[in-house]
Amino acid sequence: xxxxxxxxxxxxxxxxxxxxxxxxxxxxxxxxxxxxxxxxxxxxxxxxxxxxxxxxxxxxxxxxxxxxxxxxxxxxxxxxxxxxxxxxxxxxxxxxxxxxxxxxxxxxxxxxxxxxxxxxxxxxxxxxxxxxxxxxx
Length: 137
Prior knowledge:
This protein is an alpha/beta fold. The protein has a single domain (5-132), classed as Ribonuclease H-like superfamily/Ribonuclease H (Nucleotidyltransferase, domain 5, 2-Layer Sandwich), CATH 3.30.420. The protein has 3 helices and 5 strands; from the N terminus they run βββαβαβα. It has a 5-stranded mixed sheet, sandwiched between helices. The mean pLDDT is 80. InterPro entries: Integrase_dom_put. Residues 15-128 form the Integrase core domain.
């Protein structure tokens, strides 16, 4: 099944805690292709998730992502597969796609906000000390 467009977005949850939520959404159907929490931010992690997704869904016609370096290997992959000058990878915000933005609001509200709350509670109860000098991962 070849999807028309993927929108790959990397959402930084909080650099304070050192983890990132990566998400990939089909821009046509607004189907969440993947949602994964990783530490730290790495281009290899994003590419690995993307390759897993295309193994199941097929190679998209184009990908949209932000300008972050973590998406650089997906850019290279799409340009190698679809060719330069084909619009295979588009960088920049997707603020005009209201359905996509709404989905990310729902993900934040139903998933990420719960993580924020738990980590704040751990800190307030002194069960997790950010500045302890110990590696988190």
